[in-house]
Amino acid sequence: MHRRTARLLAATTVLGLTLTACGGGGGGGGGEAQDAARTARGPITVWYSNNEQEVAWGKAMVASWNSAHADQQVTGQEIPAGKSSEEVIGAAITAGTAPCLVFNTAPSAVGQFQRQGGLVNLASFPDGSSYITDRSGDVAKQYQSSDGGFYQLPWKSNPVMIFYNKDLFKKAGLDPDNPQLATYDQFLDAARKIKSSGAAKYAINPAPTSEFYQSQFDFIPLYSAESGGKQIVADGKATFNDPQGIAVANFWKTIYAEGLAGKEAVQGDAFASKVAAMSIVGPWAVAVYKGKVNWGAVPVPTSTGMPIGDIHTFSDAKNIGLFSACKNQGTAWDVLKFATSAEQDSALLTKTGQMPIRKDLSSTYADYFTKNPSYKQFGDLASRTVEVPGGANTVEMLQTLRDAYTKSVISGQGDVTQTFNEAADKVTSLAGRG
Amino acid sequence: MATSTTAPAAVAPPVREPRSRTRRGTRSNPLGWIFSAPYLVFIAVVFAYPLGFAVYMSFHDYFFTAPGVTVPKPFIGLENYTAALVDPAVRQSFVNVAVFLVINVPLTVVVSLVLASLLDRVAHARAFLRVTFYLPYLTSSVAIVGVWLFLFSSGGIVNRVLGPLAPDPSWLVNERWAMPSIALFVTWKGLGFYILLYLAGLQNVSKDLYEAAATDGASRWQSFVNVTVPALRPATVLVLILSIITGANLFTEPYLLTGGGGPNGASSSPVLVMYQNGIQQGQPGYAAAIGVLLVIGTLILSYLSNRFAGGRDR
Amino acid sequence: MTTTQQTPAAGRTTAPARRRASRRAVVPALVGGLTLGIGAVVFLFPFYYMVVGSLQREPDQTVAGAFPHPSNLTLSNYVTIDARLDLVRSVLNSGIFAAGVIICTVVFGALVGYALAVLQWRGRGGVFALALLVQVVPFQLLIIPLYVLIARSYGLADNYLGMILPFAINSTAVIIFRQYFLQLPQAMFEAARIDGASELQLLTKIALPLIRPALVTVVLLTFIGPWNEFLWPFLITKRADLQPLAVALANYLSNVANSTANPFGALLAGAVVLVLPVVVLFAFFQRQFVNADLSSGVKE
Lengths: 434, 314, 300
What we know:
The structure holds 3 protein chains of 3 kinds. By secondary structure, chain B is mostly helical. Chain B has 14 helices and no strands.
């Protein structure tokens, strides 16, 4: 019976291979079609993120475009966000079913999409590069591909800060209005007090799990600040094992070793449920915690206690990609510019509290920041955000860093420096490949 | 795979005509192929083609591209396989699955056999018990994982009941306990199906055998060991093989219960590693190689379990 | 492969005799009953806990939290889900998805199962081995080539057909059909053949009615696959109005639930919504299952 199964497996595979060979021949020769599509106009489909505020913004934006362009209607759809939206987009590219614009493209995925041939280089539009750099200023450079093109439009960022719960701080005997959290020592002292006073189970609770993107919310923000704005890969070489990186890792290691943060994932939001007294979050949190937590915000700590004006932080950006499957790319590019105009950016800021990636954000929307002072610090930080490295291997680099981090920092196994050096070697070789 | 449903030969000789005629090929009913045709077409489309594609990818530095885009996808021979075999993450995932199988498979066979034979003889609350036992099997992992997280978290009710006996760190974040916890969860979840298989098998066991055993003064335990267990051997082989196969394909549980195979990969599985490499990191060729290795391993295991548990059926 | 099959002995013991025999063993019966009872608790408790947790205003992880407390009860977790999802629509989508799979599986699966168990033909063993083999290969290995095939080559993205196709014929169901058909006495088929019945008539008029319990099992097993399936419909459907319940709920859980006041309650309420239809359906078919046992004498 099993000998037969083995033979059958071979036969089935050969049959499949034959089918593969027959089916795989197609394709090729899309260059001219792409050029024609570049200027074509007509109806297009766009996807936006599915959280409540962004859906509201997306619907309003689409409606306002459609009312002025009867011949170039836009159909808007929510995409499944959450863990797997990059996988959905990747699969849609392969199948040629991607929409024209995705208003939720993660920078960490852009390199792969680009390698798949799924994205249109926005710099190939006559006003492409100039539009992006005029809107975003210097920050735009981080979103440029190695060939100098723009396969994403830097759209909005969520510069992360430390949120703290004022009530729990008071309970722990800490100053709720002016907490001392700038240096690592201060931060650790405060954390120990929170824990020993029983004010909360944990001082802070970043997700301790192994998904590649989790480092974006513990290691990377602190490293961005500590290193004065370095990416974890610079000039094709991993940087995170430099003295600043090791200092950040050792800081977190102390947190975990002393039980100031949990090694177990908390269902739901640890900060909202008051399991943790602090959290690392972006401006989206302002609306979410309104009325639930009496919070304050400070920049992430550094070893020397940099003032906020010098702090760099992780961007947590979501960008816009224009996909090559789009037939009416002329319209798509116009919609893209419409959706990132000063007026729409203002609507986005008001509705979602997320920061449009614009130079002079604070001065452009000065009114908004005066009326909503809680967003002011975020607006200031938005000009000093750090992105994950580009290229087709971003996810694998982040996974490598994450594996080293969970092992040596969260679990406290082995030597941090050695583990980080090994991970850095691997990331450097990945950067070389990409 | 043993497919006979022979009851102990001593009791009643087979009444049915022997099938050996077909084996010699004196008569082959063309309707067999006709009846099977839709299924075979289905298999060719949704199974053979993607499988062939996967094997093809495993020998190439493959990359999925948009229609009309050509990226070189060079043939690289066994490179993906050699890389997979030395990758510590892949190795660990195979070791993890071995741990999983060592716990899950015997537990599944024993518990489902015992519960099925008890259920077969029970007079009261039969319907209720059936619904109860099948419930976890019918439920999606996505739905039920939340409850388990709630039950087994460090402040969860299980640890509260256990008090000082609770492991620290808690079950799913403890390197030693993460995989056994997952194995327990999967056993619990799958038992209903295997109980169903055993119950079907039990309908085939002649009640005369029990009568005969009872007349000989055998206790209920003795008749269970001497009558039920041997009579259910074919069902046991099926249970064994199916539980090995599901175990080898473990994915959803580590993905959802332990946040992607944590802590430190202590609960990762080959399919999870495959998913990370192939779908998240864009290396489908490498992932396919891991998948092919896994399929070969599963086939060997199923063959062995058929060889040893199926025994005389061959 | 030996496929000898024995018909059950003709003289089956009558029920009273069986009862008399087992009455001798009161203690083992008690042990058995106790084992079943403990089993039932172990199986049921997480579900009970799920319902209780979904009704809690504030998550309560203490032992006392396992018992509902009037001051901590609320339906708001369900209200939030209902407000956010089009439940009717997604249940309908799940229903269409599952029904398509069930129909294909019952029609084509029964055909193969019959061919494998009753008909004598060369290639029979090979096809059966194929049905087993299909289960050995992890779906994650096939999913991207499959997606490309169905979405790109067949253009079936955002389409019920595309959703159904990879699951259309459940191979486990084929194996179960075969197993049950094997239990029917060959002599019966021979007799009907002599009477001039075609194989298709044999299948629909004799074999299928006789294995009604198998049919129920197959329908149920086939149902839960598509009903609980997440990854495939998630990939193949982008339009929210086509998404089945499992996908809609998973989206809800991964985004919205975290920002609600009681994320655990929201999560558990979502789980209840997903589980409930299965339980209702199963409880409904349960009677058939019991009947199946009583009438397992079909073979005689």
